[in-house]
Amino acid sequence: MDAFLPSTLAVAIAEIGDKTQLLTLFLTARFAQRNAIILGILVATLLNHGLSAWLGAWLVQWVPESWGPWIIGLSFIAVGLWVLIPDKDDEEDTAILKYGAFVATCVLFFIAEIGDKTQVATVILAARYDSLLWVILGTTIGMMLANVPVAYAGSWLMQKIPLQLARWSACGLFVGLGVLTLIMA
């Protein structure tokens, strides 16, 4: 359970202003079915973060025990600094849109998360904490907390959230987790 709160907060804050929020805006502008979009985000995130958490737990088995906290701590700090760099607006493949809101959202979200900050953070969180279930649930809920309001409130909400503050908050959270991991080593 100690993995749940850091996982939720890390992803929820890191997602503010991320390309997946922009993707949510795009999908809500294209499709009227908000619930199908939200369900697609949920399914894609569970799959992506589930695989990522499994990878993190698997990788930590192969790293010498004395190296683990250093690699994890420094990785948290690196992700913290990475969130300060705004995402570039990738062009999405619009051919998938013909399959409807749910399928388009599942595919586009899964692809958008590959190599993204939150996917890397999920790998690191799973390597740091013993409970894959709580990491997956936490990162998934964090993703939903960041994207569900965008699906309903759209561009109005994005104009009200100061992105610099969100980026610096996410940076502070990740760096704090990194420093805490290094201190506990």
Report on the architecture of this protein.
- This is GDT1 family protein.
- The protein is mostly helical and 185 residues long.
- The chain has one domain (4-184).
- Helix content is 77%, strand content 0%.
- The protein is built from eight helices and no strands.
- The chain has helices at 4-14, 19-30, 34-62, 68-82, 101-113, 117-128, 132-160, 163-184.
- Helix 1 runs antiparallel to helix 6 (117-128).
- The mean pLDDT is 84.
Outline:
The chain is 77% helix and 0% strand.
List keywords for this structure.
transmembrane helix, mainly alpha, single chain, membrane, 185 residues, transmembrane, 77% helix, 0% strand
**Structural class of the secondary elements?**
mainly alpha
According to DSSP, the number of beta strands is 0
Low-confidence stretches: none
Average pLDDT over all residues:
84
| Range of helix content | over 70%
How many helical elements?
A: 8
Q: Round the Cα radius of gyration to an integer and report it.
A: 16 Å
Main sheet characteristics: none
Organism: Marinobacterium weihaiense
Protein name: GDT1 family protein
Main location: membrane
Membrane topology: Multi-pass membrane protein
Furnish the topology, listing elements before pairings.
Layout: H1 4-14, H2 19-30, H3 34-62, H4 68-82, H5 101-113, H6 117-128, H7 132-160, H8 163-184
Helix pairs in contact: 1-6, 1-7, 1-8, 2-5, 2-7, 3-5, 3-6, 3-7, 4-6, 4-8, 6-7
Main location: membrane
Membrane topology: Multi-pass membrane protein
Keywords: Membrane, Transmembrane, Transmembrane helix
